[in-house]
User: What shape does this take?
Amino acid sequence: MTTGSADYRDSGLTFPDGFLFGSATASYQIEGAAAEDGRGPSIWDTFARTPGKVLNGDTGDVADDHYHRYEQDLDLIRDLGLDAYRFSIAWPRIQPTGSGAVNQAGLDFYRRLVDGMLERGITPIATLYHWDLPQPLEDAGGWPARDTADRFADYARIVGEALGDRIGTWTTLNEPWCSAFLGYGSGVHAPGRVSEIESLRAAHHLNLAHGQAITALRGVVAADAQYSVTLNFAVARPGGPGGKEAVRQIDAIANRVFTGPMLKGAYPEDLFADTAAITDWAFVEDGDLAAIAEPIDILGVNYYNTASVQLWDGVGEKRGDANHNLSAGTPYPGADRVEFLPLPGPKTAMGWNIAPDGFEELLLSLHRQFPGQALMITENGAAFDDVVAEDGRIHDVERTDFLRRHFAAAHRAIEQGVDLRGYQVWSLLDNYEWAYGYSKRFGIVRVDFDTLERTTKDSALWYSQLVKTHILPDAPAAG
Ligand code: FCB
Assistant: This one.
């Protein structure tokens, strides 16, 4: 674990020309307007209304009201000088039932949003799926059902036909690990099902959806469009007896279950062995692997923290997973003996350890595993318990320090040859943090959830300085 003082020596580092600095959000977390202009219900609308699933019963009904305030939010992005904005498109706004009829008002909203970016000189990075599956598709089986992948390809084609002339970067899925294993394995995310076999089926159909969506898009969007997928990689380290084996198992079920088929055209053999007691993977049909391995241009990387693992000796209680502590079942099928060890501080308000060294380690590891693969940080950031000071400002020095140390780590990776194209900070705005509701603030811009007023935090001012100069500031911008 690196310490703050060591990192300060990294200050003054310069990022390459063309490096795409930006920030990220997701539709359900910010838009609100849940029942407006023909939007259908998603699995998150349902899950949020299920007692006990989300802290305080919070829903995304209003969220940041971005649906109505998007012009103001785009002005904020422009005023900070950001190059790019990573946003997601809500499938239930485009196809309220997840298949068939297209809702023109939904397409119009995203056309206005993207045009607003282009007018302000902001590069759009669109994600097609950030977890808001239309509820009727879940009722028909959800991601464990193969048909959902076909429906996703149809949806991708519809969006591509409508917006393909103005969006240059297309990300198919955000964090399919969460969709599959938190959604259908441990059940802490929508739709909240708890089944190891279903979560593995979901993972495969998400992989298939990714490949089929790129094929669908290629037929209809600009020829020079870039394709990507965003994965949240587990950075597990051996923390005790059997640690190396525990790391292998987590790497298989959290990382290689996606990078194998997507980037190498095959599922890892050790994953089949680990999960043999759960499934024979007969749901992988002829031709699927070729469909999934559709080439991508950019691999999106979301990074927040590390994990320390060992194998349980079978005595006493198995320790829990500190990073998914809302967990009921297991989000790691086939890795039942892996114990996640408590990690030392410092930590964010999520209880996640702060580990910029793990960020560098991950980027170098991806560079080694997939030589020549361009990468983009599609999420990195931190929740802290912000305080509004007497001057009305948010002096979020911890968030600024977190970002500075992670940008320094990314810079070290670039210097070692990693082809890193950009960095999207999570998040532009405080927003709906899934099962934590509105209790966790990740924004570089504060949102008052009563008045919906936006206030730029000090971390945003610091970031703005980095974006405008390309030189990493060594201290927060003066308040
Ligand atoms: C990621 C999600 C994003 C946000 C951050 C904190 O897993 O993609 O929506 O919730 O975590």
Q: What stands out?
A: Residues 27-384+405-443 form a domain with the TIM Barrel fold (CATH 3.20.20.80).
